[in-house]
Amino acid sequence: METTEELRKKLNEIREKCLSCRKCPLFQTRHNIVFDDGIPNQKLMLIGEAPGYYEDMQGKPFVGKAGQLLDKIFASVGFTRERDVYICNTLKCRPPDNRNPLPDEKEACWEYLKAQIEIIKPRIILLCGNVAVQSILGSAGGITRIRGNWFPPESAIVDVYGAKMMPIFHPSYLLRNDSREKGSPKWLMWQDIQEIKREYDKLAV
Ligand code: URA
Q: In whole angstroms, what is the distance from residue 200 CA to residue 113 CA?
């Protein structure tokens, strides 16, 4: 098994390539490439949508309000970015006004996400929101219907190197739905993260 340092080295080679990327028009408006954060530890990867304003400014995924909520969700089961989770996005550059990524942008950027999955080969991939779900599972269904379910590697439309996958709500959606009542999106998210933790604890590596 590769060490974290070896994985970081391989990821850095891809990051370097990404830094000068001009494959889609988003390079014209970006302030920074948002490549990744957290630890490449072959266990748990989270794939989000695309950088927003704060991410574009800081060059780091999930640092705005949604990111702060994500950190709280992780902390509720004892996960931290530094020790437990590798975080990246479907797109590495911010779409103007945070609009949804366009098909051509996703296609152009796939090279980098593909490499991240291939290098890390995580055992668990969390698909955070509809954009990530569509990139990896295709038309498996809307997030409200499929969140909280485990999907086997064969159900992906791309090679996920044996990872099992769970779609989860995007934290931005939770910010717009504040109720914590039983059955609400936030309540469901708290169930899902506990299930993720149970599965994570079973991993030997
Ligand atoms: N939303 C995402 O999907 N990714 C980020 O990095 C920030 C907000």
A: 22
Asked whether 51 lines ligand 1 (CB < 6 A), one says yes
Quote the ligand 1 centre to 102 CA distance (angstroms).
15
In ligand 1, which atom is closest to the CA atom of 90? 3
Contact 95, 137 (CB under 8 A): no
Overall pTM surpassing 0.85 (yes/no): yes
CATH number at 134 reads: 3.40.470.10
> Which residue range(s) make up the domain with 190?
4-202
Half-sphere exposure of 112 (CA within 13 A, CB side): 28
Distance from residue 48's CA to the centre of ligand 1 (Å):
6
CA 157 to chain centre: 17
How many domains, the chain? 1
Q: What is the pLDDT of residues 152-192, one digit of tens each?
A: 999 999 999 999 999 999 999 999 999 999 999 999 999 99
